[in-house]
Amino acid sequence: MPQIEPLTIRQLREKAMRLPASPGVYLMKNRQGTIIYVGKAKALKNRVSQYFGSHTNHGVKVIRMVEHVADFDYILTDSEFEALVLECSLIKQYAPKYNILLKDDKGYSYIRVSNDGWPMISAVLQKADDGATYIGPYTSHFTVSNSVDEARRIYRLPSCGKTFPRDIGKSRPCLNYFIKQCSAPCAGKIGEQEYRETVEQALRFLRGGTGDALRDLQSRMEEAAENLEFEKAARIRDRIQALRRAADKQKVYSAAVEEQDVFAIVAEKEKCCLNVLRFSDGRLRESEFFILDTPENMAECRTELVRSFYSMNRQVPPRISLDGEMEDAELMGRWLSEKAGRKVTIAVPQRGAQMQLVELCRKNAAEKLMQSSGRATRQATALRELAQLLGLRDIPEYIESYDISHTAGSDNVAGMVVFQDGMPLKSAYRRFAIKDFAGQDDYASMAEVLRRRFTHYLEDKDSSAGFGRLPDLILLDGGQGQVHAVQPVLAALGIDVPLFGMVKDDHHRTRAIAANGGEIALTSRRAAFTLVSQIQEEVHRYAITYHRQKHRKAGLSSTLTEIEGVGPARAKALLKHFKTLSAIRAASLDALCAVPGMPKSVAQAVYDALHEDKAQ
User: What is the pLDDT of residues 562-590, one digit of tens each?
Assistant: First the structure.
């Protein structure tokens, strides 16, 4: 493709301003003439000109795309719906770099049964010319893999890599035998004939489902009992119970709507995960994940994801449930209905069983995103729950928490602790001695501490470390009073960070989150409750430890200042040099004289005063 002469931003804007205010599709091109973005518009002039105006309203992705635009083309349509249909076709044709494109890596899956005396069952993605028997193909590897795993557990078939009869008698049974998930052919616990019969039963289960397998096992158990083969009957009884448990487990992942897809997106700062749960016959049949760059507009992102997902020749169900609003929902519903040949409903559930399915989908997306980023499950779950609970756009990876500690207004201090990725980051902890006033005023103390902390941020923000880093969330130890005291401080400094309080009950335990105008209960979110409780306990411990140290030093200092010639400065110098009163008492006269600013006469007075009790 020949290169094109790039237009300047000014020329691109002038060209955009000459476009008609009509529906259509626009195609952004780079210097090589490659289409890098395809979009639709209800009014081409308004939409395209926005790209080449001020960048203040654009996100990073759009700015990066515009930097590579050398020219653009457009195609007029009779309606916005026709523009949507054409946009989908062109995106599929050109696969532009800056459109959201879901990689269609789906293939067919098979159940493989090895052809030997001790057949093994496994799930595979391709058939091989190896003499084995292959059952399939199936379109969902998720379903095949889960079904094979379930059959192995129910019928106690080995899932290890051992080969029989070669490895029989060479080792002791593994843990699966003792938890009744393997019949241990490796240790000779089952004969070849019985093993082959068990494999046949497992294959009947895989081909016919739970109902047929239960009926077959029931008749076999009754036959074994009549023949007085009670051990065999007991083993079959255990399989029947395992099958019923598997059926009960499937009911948990069932839906009242026979056929539907459920979409949910969980986003962090840089990456997000889309999870799609696909239901047919009222049962969960498939779960698909896609890791993408975090979008700047979630409603627009959902539209692009749904369009991309069903552009990959996937069957469109009668109902699609989303975890939030999507852009152009009416147009997308019409496009999907025409694609499916029947009406397709797009819904955003707010309550009931459908909402529970959306939450299940979101939980799976969060788990997958956590695995891809390498974070621990417990911390990731807690942070995700906390973000949902507080209505945060992003998961709060860097949390700062503050608490005030004093004794009746004396030795007034504050502590700041930091939790990064749900874990304490002790190198970032900071201590504050209240300076602006004396006495007891927790609200004024909290306001002073936050003012000093974020004043340091404005001075050091280029460093992006220590006080130069902006937190994702601020938690204050206290209720709405502390929140209201700090809000004006942050507003005056231009700091836009989510701010909440941590409320305790009468037993000094975490009870709720104080928000602007009310409280948010924590009891329904166990992981978030545990994390907030940990943060509140840690910041309280850190603040009160600092207060006790300062209070103890103040007491030691007052003891020293009672000695003639020792004022606050010399008392401080002594404590800095010797650390404790016991060390000062144990010091020799020469050691006391070695303290900076300590005359021999004063050192003698200190020595005499601290040894007076011993002399008496």
Answer: 777 777 778 778 877 877 777 887 888 88
